[in-house]
Amino acid sequence: MIIVMKPGAEPRNIKAVLSFVEKNGLQTHLSRGEEVTIIGIVGDKSKLPTENLISFKDVDHVVPVTESYKLANKKFHPEPTAVKAGSTSVGPGTMTIMAGPCAVESEEQLMTIARAVKKSGASFLRGGAYKPRTSPYSFQGLEAEGLRYMQEAARETGLATICEVVSQEAIEAASKYVDMIQIGARNMQNFILLKEAGRSGMPVLLKRGLCATIDEWLNAAEYIIAEGNPNVVLCERGIRTFETATRNTLDLSAVPVLKEKTHLPVIVDPSHSTGAYKYVPPMAKAAVASGADGLMIEVHDNPSCALSDGPQSLTFENFDRLTGELAPFCELAGRPLIK
Amino acid sequence: MIIVMKPGAEPRNIKAVLSFVEKNGLQTHLSRGEEVTIIGIVGDKSKLPTENLISFKDVDHVVPVTESYKLANKKFHPEPTAVKAGSTSVGPGTMTIMAGPCAVESEEQLMTIARAVKKSGASFLRGGAYKPRTSPYSFQGLEAEGLRYMQEAARETGLATICEVVSQEAIEAASKYVDMIQIGARNMQNFILLKEAGRSGMPVLLKRGLCATIDEWLNAAEYIIAEGNPNVVLCERGIRTFETATRNTLDLSAVPVLKEKTHLPVIVDPSHSTGAYKYVPPMAKAAVASGADGLMIEVHDNPSCALSDGPQSLTFENFDRLTGELAPFCELAGRPLIK
Amino acid sequence: MIIVMKPGAEPRNIKAVLSFVEKNGLQTHLSRGEEVTIIGIVGDKSKLPTENLISFKDVDHVVPVTESYKLANKKFHPEPTAVKAGSTSVGPGTMTIMAGPCAVESEEQLMTIARAVKKSGASFLRGGAYKPRTSPYSFQGLEAEGLRYMQEAARETGLATICEVVSQEAIEAASKYVDMIQIGARNMQNFILLKEAGRSGMPVLLKRGLCATIDEWLNAAEYIIAEGNPNVVLCERGIRTFETATRNTLDLSAVPVLKEKTHLPVIVDPSHSTGAYKYVPPMAKAAVASGADGLMIEVHDNPSCALSDGPQSLTFENFDRLTGELAPFCELAGRPLIK
Amino acid sequence: MIIVMKPGAEPRNIKAVLSFVEKNGLQTHLSRGEEVTIIGIVGDKSKLPTENLISFKDVDHVVPVTESYKLANKKFHPEPTAVKAGSTSVGPGTMTIMAGPCAVESEEQLMTIARAVKKSGASFLRGGAYKPRTSPYSFQGLEAEGLRYMQEAARETGLATICEVVSQEAIEAASKYVDMIQIGARNMQNFILLKEAGRSGMPVLLKRGLCATIDEWLNAAEYIIAEGNPNVVLCERGIRTFETATRNTLDLSAVPVLKEKTHLPVIVDPSHSTGAYKYVPPMAKAAVASGADGLMIEVHDNPSCALSDGPQSLTFENFDRLTGELAPFCELAGRPLIK
What we know:
Four copies of one chain form a homotetramer. Helices cover about 35% and strands about 20% of the residues of chain A. Chain A is α/β, with parallel strands linked by helices. In chain A, strands 7-8-9-10-11-12-13-14 form an eight-stranded parallel β-barrel, surrounded by seven helices. Chain A has a four-stranded antiparallel sheet with strand order 2-3-1-4, covered by helices on one side. In chain A, strand 11 (about 205), helix 6 (about 215-225) and strand 12 (about 230-235) form a beta-alpha-beta unit. Chain A is elongated and about 75 Å long. Chain A starts with a strand and ends in a 7-residue tail after the last helix. Chains in contact: A-B, A-C, A-D, B-C, B-D, C-D. Chains A and B meet through helix 5 and helix 6 of A and helix 5 and helix 6 of B.
C-alpha cells in the first residue's frame, strides 16, 4: 500500500499518517520528492482500516499494491488446478464441453438433448432447474423435479451434470442429484450463497458478474475457497458495455489475464454473451484459441419453442457441426476433443 | 411487440411467423414496405415465448413495445406512493434524510451517531449489521447484535431505522428490530431475496445494481410488489462506468426518468456513489434539485477510524452544515426539512 | 511514479530498474516489504519513457502519482479562472446561460430564437453552423452563412455568441463572426483541432468526449492552453454507459471533481446528455446545485420541425418557465440570474 | 420506422402524427392494440426529420428499423470486398499481418524492424509518423520524415506500408509515401477527416472509436465511401469498459457481427486493445479463429526503450514465434500464412 501526499503537505500531517500506521504495527517508508511525498506501507494490512487513510489531512490518494485474494492467487499457488466432477475433470490438458438447454423443460426433452450432445462430444450436460429471470412473470424453472431429470440423463448417458443454484435449498437439492453447481452472473456477489457453496464441498462453476472486474471475480472465488472448498471453475459469460449488437460483450482477454492471475480453470460461455446462435461458432473457436479450458454452450431440440433463451440455442445439427469444426482447434491447444 | 422481417423475406416465411403468433391466440398486423415488412403483435404476450421469434427464418429483429413490469408502472398507477416506516413516511411532499454509519460498530458509537443525526434533521438512522464485502477478509458486520443496537437507538431518539439484509435469516431478524429493510446493489437481482422481502411485508429500500438498467431495476421492484408488498422505495447509488475519479457514476438523470415511469418514491445516496465525503454536499443538493424524495448519507463520529467506508463518511460537523445548506433546496422542492 | 516489483523479484532485476531510472537523471527510493518491493521515482519524468518500465523483468505494475496536465491543474493555479467572451464572462460569481437551436436553420428563425432567449435570461446565443452528424446523410449545417446570422443576432440582442467548429477553416470563419468557439464531444481528442483552437486565441468551450475520463479531458484542455490560450471553459454533456433510458448519462459528479482538480469554469449541457426536453428542467436545476458555472440549453421555436435534435429542445414557453424556476437556485449558488 | 403511441392516446393526437408523416410523402400503417397503438412508416425517411416525431403529443417512443448506412451495408452489397494496397490485398481468402513499431523513431530502427517482420511473415509495415497522444507533452511523431523512412523500408523489403493520418496535410503527405492510411480511434468521428480520406482515394484502415457502437462505426465508414472511395478496412482495437486489467476490452464478437452487417474486411489489433505484450499471442489466435481478415501487431527491436507504447510491443523473437504458432490457425481459416 502506498500513500501519496498532496503537493506541499505539511510535515505534521505527514507525521500524523506515519504515527497512525506505525501504531497499528506496520512499517512505513518515506520518499520525499520535489513535487510529492510518498509513504510506502509494509506489513499485515488486515490490522488497519487502510481505506480510511484517505481521510487524513494532506493525503491525496492511496494506492493498493497487492491483491486481496490469496487462495485463488497464482502467485501463491503456481500450479494449475484440475476440478473433478462425476467421472470427468476440468482443467489442464482437457477441453470440457458443457452443453444442454438453458432451462430443463421436461424429462423427455432433456433425455433427447442429453443423447444428442453426448454423441457430438460434450462431457457435461447443463440445464437450468432454478432460473433467475429479470421479470417475475417469466418461466422460473422446474426446480427439484428438473434436478431429478438431470440425474436420470446422467445415468443413461454417462455425462457429468451441472445446474445453477440460487439458494441454500437449491444447493442442498443439487448436491443430491448433480455433479457440479453453478453460481450465475447475478449472484456473483451474493456472498451468503458463495459461502454456502463453499461449505457444500460441491464443485462450483462461478460465472462472472455482468459488471464485475476480474479482481472482484477472484475475490468472489476466494469466498468459496475460504470455506475449505478449492473446487472452483470460472466462467466468462460477457460483460455489460454500451454495445448492443450482442447481448453482452464477451471479454475473451479475460482468459489470458486469468491464466496469469489464478490457478483456477476458466471456461467460456459464447451463448449467453452473444445472445445469438449464429455468433456462437466463431466465438467458441476464438475461446479455445485464447486458452480456455472449456466451453458452455446452449443446445436445444427446437430453439423456436424454447421456454428460455431460444435465440441463442444451437440445434443438434449446428452443435454437431460446431464440435467437428472445433476439434482441430482443441488439438492445437493440446486439449484433444474426443467425439 | 413488433417483428421486423429481413429485406426480401419470402412470403412463406412471413406466413410462418403469422401462423405461429395467431395459433398462440394473439393478433397480427402486417405492414409491407418497399424495404422491409413489419408485423405488429397485439394481445397477451405471456402466452407465447416471444423472444424465440427471432429464430424464425427471415426475421431480422424483434422490438418489445411495452414494459414487462406492471405493478411498479406509473402508466397503470398514476398516483405517487408514500411508503410508511416507523412514525414517518417516504414520498410526496416530504424530504427523507437517512443518515448513519456504513457499519454498526458498537452500541455506544451508534447511540452517539443517532443523537447527532437526529439533531441535524435526519428522520431515519441507517446502519449496516450485515455487510456484503468484496473480500472475505473484510469486516462483515455485527449481525443480530447490531440490529438490537439499532432498536435501542430508535427508542431513545424516535428515529425510524433501516438496515441492509442479505438473507432470509437477516430479514427475519430485521423485521423484529428495525422499521425498513434495505436490499443492496449486489443483491438487486437476487430474486430469492426479493421474493422473501416481498413476503415479509416490511418496507423495502431497493438499491440499484451497479450495472442495472432502470428497466431491470423496476422489474426487481416488481418481484417484491408481486408478493403483495407495495412498500418499495428505490435508491439510486451510482452505476459502474469507465470513469474512476469517483467510485461510481451517480446517475441523477435516473430521478426524473423514474418519476416518469413509476409511482414509487426515489431517494439518492451520494456517499456510496462518489466514495468521497467532499463530493457528498454538492451531490446531495443536486439530488434534491433533481426531484428526489430523500437522501441516504453516511455519517460517522470518527471517519478516519471507521471499519468500513470511512473515506465517504461525513463528520457530525459536516453533516450539520450540510443539512443547514440543504434546507432552502428542500423548501424550493416543496419538501420542507425540519431541523 | 511508483514501480511495484513482483513477489520474489530477483535482486539483479530490481537493480536493473534502479540503474535505468537513475541513468535517466531521476532519483529512486527503495522499500523492501515482506511480500513486495516498491521503488518510488522522483524527478522530471519527461526525461524517460516511464511506461516502458513495465517491460523490465519482475516488474509487476507501474503507478503514476502525479497528473500529466500542469496548466489546467488547480494545484499550480489555485485561483478560479474567468473566461471573457463578448461583453460577458464565464466563471466565478456568474451564472452563464447559453441557449439556442442545435442547428442554425435560417436568419429569421435564429433572430426569433435570439430575442426569446435574451428575454428569458440567456447571456449567450448558441447555434450550430457546422454539424458533426453520425450519418453522412443527415443535415450538416449552413456553415459560414450560419455564422453570419449569428453575428446579426448578436448585434441586435447584445447576446454573446458561440458556435461549434470542426476544422481550421471553421475556426477562421468563426473568429470573424462569433465570440466563443466550441469543440464538440467527438473532437475532444482531435489534437490537431485543439492546437488550432489554442493558436486562434479565441475563447474555447471544450465538451467532454463521450467516453473521456476527466483526466483525458483536462489533458485535452492542456493542449489548448499549451498554445498560449488560457481561455478554456469545460462543458459536461453526458458520457456513454449501458443505460439507454437517457441518450447519455449526465455525470454531474464531474462538476465537484473538476472544481477540485482545475481552475477552469465548468458548464453543463442537460439537453444533449438526456436527449429529452422533459428531463432538461430537473437536470438544469441539479447542475446549478452541484456548483456549475453555467448551462447550455437547446431552445427552438418549433421543436417538432427542428432539423436536428428536436426531441431535446425546449419551446420558448418551457425555457422561460425554466429560467424562472432556476432563479432561486442561482441565488443560493451566489450566482444571481438577471432576467 | 415505427411509432409507438402512449396507452390511451387520444384519437386526434394519433391523427396528427399520421397527417404529419403523410404530408411528407410517406405511407403509414396503423395497428390499434388493447394496450398500445403502433404506427408503421414506410417510404423515404430522408424526407422528414423523423426523430422529432417523439415531440408529438401521446407519442411514447420511436423505433428505427433500418440501418442508416447503405454503401457499407451487406444487405445491399452481399459480396465481400477486397481492398488492394501496394502489391497486396486485404480481404477474402487472405490473412493480412500488419506489423511494426507504434511510432517511427529513426530510419535505421525502422529498417531493422521492417526486415524482421518481413522475415516472420508480415505483409504490411505499420509505423506512426503522426501520433495522437493524450498529453501534449508526450512524443508526437517524426511526421513527413517518418513517412519517407516508411517508403524506404517498403522499397527494400517489398512490404506494403500503412501510417496513421490526423489532418488534411498528413493525408497529402501520406499519399505520396505509403500504401494505406489509417484513421485512429480518436478520430473515428472526425467527419472532416473522414471526408478528406474519402476524397483522397487512398485505401483507408478505419479503427473503431473507444466508445463507438458498431452502427456508428459503419456510419463512419459510410462517410468515406460516400465520397467515392470504397477501399475501407475496419480495425477492431478494443472498446472502453469498466475493466482495467487490460487497457481496453477487445470486442472480438464484433468480428462475426461485422461479417454479417458489412462487406468490408475486418482486422484486429490485439496490441492496443490489451496494452500488454503477453496477452497479444492468445488474442491474435482468437482473432483469427473468430474470422478476422488480418491482424495489426506492434513489434519493436527494443520494447523497453520504445518512445511510445513499449509495454505492448513484441520483440522480434516473440513475433517470430507468434507467426509460427498462428500458421495452423490461418490454415484452418482458409487463409494460409506464407512465411
